[in-house]
Amino acid sequence: MKAEQFDARFDDGDDVTAELDLTRARRPGHAHRRVNVDFPVWMVDALDHEARRLGVTRQSVIKMWVADRLDAVGRPAA
Questions:
Q1: How many Å apart are CA 39 and CA 55, to the nearest integer?
Q2: Do residues 19 and 10 make contact, with C-beta atoms less than 8 angstroms apart?
Q3: Could you give the 3-state DSSP secondary structure of residue 72?
């Protein structure tokens, strides 16, 4: 498909994802890096309680809370 055809279909609101090779697609600024953090037992218990309440994983709670805090203090651009 020519670029002009692709652009026209996209501009018309057509689903063009079938035309894309997404096998190597990446989201800039969203690469992962593993970090190990030691928490006291009471904090892990509190995180687990909140995770169960929200129906998500402990890791999700930690990531949401850290992201919220970074947004509040004005995190630097990635």
A1: 21
A2: no
A3: helix
8-state DSSP, 17: G
Rounded to whole angstroms, how far apart are CA atoms 61 and 48?
9
The number of C-alpha atoms within 13 Å of 74 and in the hemisphere containing its C-beta is 0
Q: Give the position of tokens 């218990």.
A: 45
Q: Is 57 helix (H, G, I), strand (E, B) or coil?
A: coil
Instruction: Please give the chain's pLDDT, 78 residues, in tens.
Output: 888 999 999 999 999 888 888 888 888 878 888 999 999 999 999 999 999 999 999 999 999 999 999 999 987 755
Token pair for 26: 């990446």
